[in-house]
Amino acid sequence: MSPYDAILNDLQTLGEMPLRRWRERFPGFRPLGFMNAYLPEELFHAAGFTPVLLLHRREDRGQAKAHLPGFTCWVARSALDQALAGELEGLAGVAFAQSCDAVQALADLWPRAVPQLPAFYVAMPHHLAAPAARSYLLAELQRLRWRLEEMTGQAIGDEALQASIALYNRTRALLGRLHELADRLPPPALHAARQAAFLMPKELYYPLLAQLLEQLPPSGTGSPRLVVVGSELADPSLYQVIAEAGGRVVGDLLDLGQRHFALPVDETGDPLQALADHALALLPTPTKYHPQRRRDAHLLETVRTRQADGVIFARQKFCEPHGFDYVMLKAALDRAGVPHLLIELEQTPHVGQMRTRIEAFLEMIGA
Amino acid sequence: MYYAGVDVGAITAKAAILDDSRFVASAVMAAGYNRAAAAEQVLAQALQQAGLERMAVARLVATGYGRVQVPQADRTVTEITCHGRGAHWLCPDVRTVIDIGGQDSKGIAVNAAGRVVDFVMNDKCAAGTGRFLEIMAHALEEDLERFGELALRAARRVAISSTCTVFAESEIVTHIAAGVPKPEIIAGIHEAIAARIASMVARLAVQDVVMLTGGVARNVGLARMLEEKLGHTIVVLPEAQITGAIGAALFAREG
Question: Regarding beta strands B234-235 and B116-122, do their DSSP bridges make them parallel or antiparallel, or are they unpaired?
């Protein structure tokens, strides 16, 4: 097995790794679960934790349905289901940044449903360019810093926070490079490589990613060239099906994809303010608004620069923000004559039906 | 030279054979559990009808849900692309194809060259598919073959509000208990399916000629009610059920 394959195989195992195994694999790290794109991971890191994205599991024991209505997106529901089943024991806590109603509801009910796992919450402004957004978010991060300091009994110094920011920036730069070279990786490998960024300690991840980038195949295979749009990184089966159908993922507009790593956090000024400014400066996710940073324009630009042939919307069933966003993005793509396909993802993916749609779409836009 | 297309669907397997210019033969049978065996058998039947040996087939293309299970297929093409292609070959003016199969229904927009330009697909539930009709025909103890005709005989149609097959069935039981004449219930069932499919297909820009394909196209009642809901005349050809297999055979002929 080549070192390239060995690294990929290793990264691929992380997606399904139970927490118990994670702790054996990464001794000395204190995992803290989190959901969604706006969490200031660096602050938790500087407090001595390793933020780990709570991925959905395909199996669901149905326990969360006692707390959340049936039309709640299953990414949120699965996190609660795992917690109620005791699978998250060993996490130092769970952190939410305000994004959508489902995460908001989850954050609200968590202290009652899962009191043994401390919940952290960051209220993220919706209007990113509003006059108060900057000071509001800074105050919110300061509140979080105090709460973490209280919990650990340790002050989070500016130097520690700066060191965490520097570590995360190094990873961002490498992930930026990975996204530039996305078309050189088979879609499942691309997915595994960047999902791992959220699943393992950054200290260990970035050297692996650096090694992987040095060993990328000179050119990828597969066409048409696709851009994937969605909230989390989507189920791995999507990438597998795209690969099997002969397609290639060359770009994305995923909440946790390219946009998430597009900018570094400023390392010169006050670190907390830098974190706040960074969150406000990124391309907004569908629940946020910025008058100048339009998602439709950004998507068209991605399609153009990545020379994509089509766009696949990978939308979790019941994800409302991305449902509303779809209307705007679809209109922009229609106007520009860019073909697109909407795939509604279930917690347990219907791979056969997904395959028919994706193959038919590739047949439609190829040749 | 001969070219074969095999369409292994959720409920039936279909085969079509073409030569360099014409349609030669076809066969339809139940797909059953063993899709690979069904594909072999349906192809053998079509070959037998044409008086050909398996060797005579230069290329075989498989389509339908079971396409990957067809042994000896030279390649696979989705049923969406095949129905579009087959429909266009049968009727070059076709621009919208509605394929209602055993387990799903699809709307397909094709251009003047027979290429798919857009499609919509229902697959999360059985309402709006052949399976729904089967279940309802069974509940009403009627032959599926004449179910559609019965629907057209009704003076009135009961409203079936449930969009779920299971709940619709219990709703129908209520109508039976209330003494509603059977044709009115059957008409209501057809109307409910037609409404469901029409609303899905409306997501495409429906353009004439509209063609109905798939096994359910044999149901005259549904075709009529779909015309009503869509406001377009619908063409149903005798080859409706084998349109996908014909499309696959056309791809086989292209190489």
Answer: unpaired
